[in-house]
Design a protein that fits this description.
With 651 residues, this protein is of the alpha/beta class. It has 24 helices and 13 strands. Strands 1-3-2-4-5 form a five-stranded parallel beta sheet. Helix 11 links the parallel strand 2 (175-179) and strand 3.
């Protein structure tokens, strides 16, 4: 259709009104300089274009400008009202698959409303658009298929892959998510019906990452399936043949990668999604040097777990090289995480070696190297770092005796050890400090496994990954951590910080001394005066401050000069109120008086005698004592402060 723009007589141009996605402006339909049939056809096509359709949200001017008059009901409904109505309809469904179908229908007719709905309700709709509902949708994709949402490249298109890519209407593609459907979310071989995974993944990239929908391209490579159920299903939409392997498979993948680079350039990102283990590692290693490729199962999951490990180690102390790792699951995710941890450990140890070389200090870590200079000049042996990492698969612990039967990506993590069949035996034998689960089998981190981890770890990182909900507890001991007496427990530390501490007698005496030191002249600070001198400190008994309320019969002592001050490193005061109530307690740091003393709380009223406020002029004689007036005498709560502090604070 010819590209044009409406003139001022018919209203604003379409590019000025429907400019949500600039990547599709050139391909958007617009009325040509023809008869009324063309104009009516352009309005009808606009309502069926999901990129620019707004449904009943078109205004009166837009309906006249785009020839929509009569094609829509007269009511004008805002996008917010449409969102409210659709959420009401989605919540009325009891079957999760029905919600998925409704969301896909919305994406096919009104794309902007779909993403607004997903962004505003991401916590509620994320499980619908992606896992776990998308797994059931892929299993029944042939039955719920409505219209194509991506490109399908099959063995029949061999030799014509470039022509197939050119059939896609968009040209400015930035991200391609491609799958062959052989390992969909641990559900097995779903063949061509794995298209739901790239579609859902790219929807999240747009809603959460801000990638333009027109820059995303989901692709499914159909090379057959080994799933007998799908081959016998009358609604299956893919090739009804056994899955191609070997040279035939790799030739099609090679042609596809070359066509992508030729059609979309070198900067397009190709993400391999849900490929089988034996193909995922080979494809990533083969094309990582010639194309911009990424595997979410191997690299994406590993980066997130490594970030969690580094954050956890900041809280409990130590480094990556000081830990022993045990993985449940040795697939793409498990081996990918293990490999990235080993690389990060090798980087850390290399930095240790460089630091030791500059300071002539020995290196303490997992490596035992006699000559540091030779170590720095050569490549870092990552194999030594892998020895700190153990993996358990469906047949037990990966050990050297099983190396011949293991897949190639598992062999680097097979170490010398006796064969163990269960996770509990591996935990009891290896005694790991970090336990990570990457298996699709549920209920494997049993109570016995967690108790075994807690028996030889004061703070086990397995608890941080499994029971992160305990970090939000407040006024109760952390039972989920199974270590209620540990001072490192974040929950108990937050609980203790929420309660004000009453000072001990020793702390009160030290505060009294510090307050008296502030009233001592600089010339006499730090030394004791001789008896009989004008600056000799005098200590005399003093009765408790007068009060109308009964006061304890305890005598107090007024000290005019403290002993020699011992400097101590002050601990930083915690100012974070994260996890606590937003309303500060009466004795919190914000409600305490800014001027000394820091105790008692606000209800005590202070009376400053003459001469106590000025501090610009220092004299050789001690200043007058600053005594608090009893709160009982002023009608306030709290009682006598002098009787509680065993002394009168000099200021």
């Amino acid at each position: 259709m010819a590209e044009c723009e409406l003139n001022s007589a018919t209203g604003p141009g379409r590019a000025a009104t429907l400019d949500q996605d600039p990547g599709t402006e050139a391909a958007s339909p617009c009325p040509a300089n023809g008869g009324s049939d063309v104009n009516a056809q352009s309005g009808h096509q606009l309502l069926r274009d999901p990129r620019h359709n707004k449904g009943l949200a078109f205004s009166e001017a837009e309906r006249d400008a785009h020839y929509l008059r009569g094609l829509l009901p007269p009511a004008i409904v805002s996008q917010e009202h449409q969102e409210k109505k659709i959420m009401h309809n989605l919540r009325s469904y009891t079957v999760p698959l029905h919600r998925y179908i409704a969301m896909m229908d919305l994406q096919e007719r009104n794309e902007r409303l779909f993403y607004k709905l997903l962004i505003d309700n991401v916590e509620e709709l994320l499980p619908v658009v992606y896992t776990p509902v998308v797994g059931e949708a892929c299993q029944k994709y042939g039955s719920i298929y409505r219209r194509p949402q991506g490109l399908y490249i099959s063995l029949k298109d061999k030799g014509k892959v470039l022509e197939v890519l050119k059939n896609w209407p968009e040209r400015s593609i930035q991200v391609i998510v491609v799958t062959d459907g052989e390992r969909i979310l641990g559900l097995g071989d779903l063949g061509c019906q794995g298209m739901g995974i790239p579609v859902g993944k790219l929807s999240l990239y747009t809603a959460l990452g801000g990638v333009r929908p027109s820059a995303c391209l989901p692709i499914t490579i159909d090379v057959g399936t080994n799933n007998e159920t799908l081959l016998n299903d009358e609604y299956y939409i893919g090739l009804r043949q056994r899955r191609a392997t070997g040279e035939e498979y790799h030739e099609l993948l090679q042609e596809f990668m070359n066509a992508v680079k030729q059609n979309y350039g070198e900067k397009v990102l190709v993400q391999f999604e849900d490929f089988a283990n034996h193909n995922a590692f080979d494809l990533l290693a083969k094309y990582s040097k010639s194309h911009l490729v990424f595997n979410d199962d191997i690299q994406g999951t590993a980066s997130v777990v490594l970030a969690g490990l580094l954050a956890a180690l900041r809280m409990i102390g130590g480094g990556l090289v000081d830990q022993t790792y045990l993985f449940l699951g040795a697939g793409e995710a498990g081996t990918g995480i293990a490999e990235l941890i080993a690389l990060e450990m090798s980087k850390h140890v290399r930095q240790q070696a460089l630091s030791a070389l500059s300071t002539d200090q020995p290196v303490h870590g997992v490596l035992r190297i006699a000559d540091i200079e030779l170590f720095v000049q050569t490549e870092l042996p990552v194999d030594d770092c892998r020895k700190k990492i153990w993996l358990v698969d469906s047949k037990g612990l990966l050990v050297e005796s099983r190396k011949e039967s293991l897949q190639h990506f598992k062999k680097p993590f097979a170490h010398e050890h006796e064969e163990l069949k269960t996770l509990l035996e591996a935990v009891q034998s290896i005694k790991p400090t970090v336990l990570i689960g990457t298996s699709g089998v549920g209920k494997t981190f049993t109570q016995e496994v967690i108790e075994a981890m807690a028996s030889f770890n004061e703070v086990s990182l397995s608890h941080l990954f499994l029971d992160s909900s305990c970090r939000g507890a407040k006024q109760r001991p952390c039972e989920k951590c199974r270590n209620p007496s540990s001072s490192r427990c974040r929950t108990r530390r937050r609980t203790r910080s929420a309660r004000p501490r009453r000072p001990t007698p020793g702390a009160r005496a030290r505060r009294c001394s510090r307050a008296a030191a502030r009233s001592t002249p600089w010339s006499t600070r730090g030394r004791r005066s001789c008896p009989g001198s004008p600056t000799t400190p005098t200590c005399s008994p003093a009765s408790a401050s007068a009060s109308s309320s009964p006061a304890p019969s305890a005598s107090t002592t007024t000290c005019s000069s403290p002993p020699r001050r011992r400097w101590r490193r002050r601990r930083p005061r915690r100012t974070s109120t994260r996890g606590l109530s937003s309303r500060p307690s009466p004795t919190s740091a914000r409600s305490r008086p800014a001027s000394p003393p820091r105790w008692p709380p606000r209800p005590t009223t202070w009376v400053w005698p003459a001469g106590c406020r000025g501090r610009t002029t220092w004299s050789s004689t001690p200043r007058a004592a600053c005594t608090p007036r009893s709160t009982a005498a002023t009608g306030e709560r709290g009682g006598s402060f002098a009787a509680r502090t065993d002394g009168v604070i000099n200021q």
